[in-house]
Amino acid sequence: MDCPEIHGLLNRLPGRFKIICGVHTSYPEHRAYVKKEGFPPRIKCIVTPSETVKKQLKNELKAYKDMPINVMPNPVEDRFFSTANNHRSGRDISIQRKYIGWIGRFDRTKNYKEVLKISEKVASLRDDVEFIVVSKPRSGSVGQLFSEINGFRERVNFKWLPFIKHHMIHNFYSLLKESGGCFLSTSRGETQSTTSLESMASRCPIVASDIYTFKELLEDGKCGAIYKSGNLKSAVNAINRVLDDKTYRTTIADNAYNKAKENFTLERISLKWKELLESFE
């Protein structure tokens, strides 16, 4: 569903192929074409990674009320769980600051402007924190973003990385965790959030906005701190608690790790796919 260009090709596949439509986009405009063009006729079902998006799709696709929609979470690679188990006692004394990490597109849905506001407010209250923002700007927006972000760099301990190589990303979450920091998501829309899953599997504490997807994933605060989206005071309070309350940060990080280990391993998700495919036979 995220790549409508492929639908014409799907109709040409031999009949023995099972066709499943996967929905992994949090951008409503990317799903809007279905209302206009419809699904390829041979689709068996829709899969999407969370109950939250399943409910959204049922509301958006009322013309397809008989189409089965299955929840199929995104899997997390084993190396993230290995990172979580390489746990040191206490904060690494060689790390001088507590790092708060953010990964996403510089757009309205990922809500990058909120992380800039949060970083500025946190910097006005404490000097032991540094923000690391990972995002590759879209073509044509680089100049504006440089101007906007450079202004923050004058007031905030702030790093902007255009990317982190995928095979190294588990080290990013490890750095956040070992520094006594956390992972932050300010998103206004997610289907599940791969970065949050990776944080959970790495035992890196999470602070996230109160969208329904995060309430589901983090179990209303059991597996991570949730703040009211758009409320700067709520966000800063949540971050400060995660950074300063060791018992709390350990509890939510352990709860998140256990949930990820039980539900989102490659083995677990592979078995769910096997069960789904066998149900069509």
Overview of this protein structure:
The chain is an alpha/beta fold and 281 residues long. The chain is 44% helix and 14% strand. A six-stranded parallel sheet has the order 6-5-4-7-8-9, with helices on both faces. The chain has a three-stranded parallel sheet with strand order 1-2-3, with helices on one face. Helix 6 (112-125) packs across helix 11 (232-244). The longest helix has 18 residues, at 246-263. The chain starts with 6 loop residues before the first helix and ends with a helix.
What is the fold's blueprint, element by element?
Layout: H1 7-10, E1 19-22, H2 28-31, H3 33-37, E2 43-48, H4 51-60, E3 69-71, H5 78-85, E4 98-103, H6 112-125, E5 129-134, H7 142-153, E6 158-161, H8 169-178, E7 182-185, H9 194-201, E8 206-209, H10 212-217, E9 225-227, H11 232-244, H12 246-263, H13 266-278
Parallel strand pairs: 1-2, 2-3, 4-5, 4-7, 5-6, 7-8, 8-9
Helix pairs in contact: 6-11, 9-12
Task: Provide the gyration radius in Å.
Answer: 20 Å
Strand order of the largest sheet: 6-5-4-7-8-9
Number of helices: 13
> Which structural class fits the helix and strand makeup?
alpha/beta
Low-confidence residue ranges: none
Give the SSE string: HEHHEHEHEHEHEHEHEHEHHH
What is the typical, i.e. mean, pLDDT? 88
- The coarse silhouette is globular
Determine the strand fraction and express it as a percent band. 5-15%
> How widely separated are the two ends?
23 Å
Percent helix range: 40-55%
Major sheet? 6 strands, parallel
Give the tally of β-strands.
Answer: 9
